[in-house]
Request: fold
Amino acid sequence: MREGLDHQVMHLLALEPLGLGATELRHRLTQRASQPTLWRVLDRLRSEGRITVEGRGRATRYHLRERSDLRSLRSRRLHRSVARRLASEPALRDVARERLQKLRHVNPHGRVYHDRWADLLDGPLTQLLRVMTEVSEQADVLRQESPFTVLVTPDERRRAFESARGT
Reply:
């Protein structure tokens, strides 16, 4: 029975790239499980490194973990934090432009990504913010060559890593 519940939880999480909360998971399970049983299953899957946990309390969401999932989740969290700052301080785009110029010199092979970031930085702020926080494989790849790392404070970095804890 335990393996069936583990498998079903993993399957449901695989279908939801944005993750699921414990209550949502419990309602979608075809196999009945009490709340404490589901929590034990989720805790075991997390400790085995098969799922990641994002957030705390009622906002806790569970995600299927693949090797790159945790890194992508943390990167998205960091960019979400920077996007909030950019929304209130659009002039910070100049700092990102300066960093982008340095990235171009350090990594000439990232030209495709640098060009995309340059276009976004010069375009409408709303489009830049959308791409920065988008949940997609393409956005995950683009964020790997991001000029916004200089805008992340140590405290924001710590919070992002804690909110997307996977160990």
About this structure: The chain has a mean pLDDT of 87.
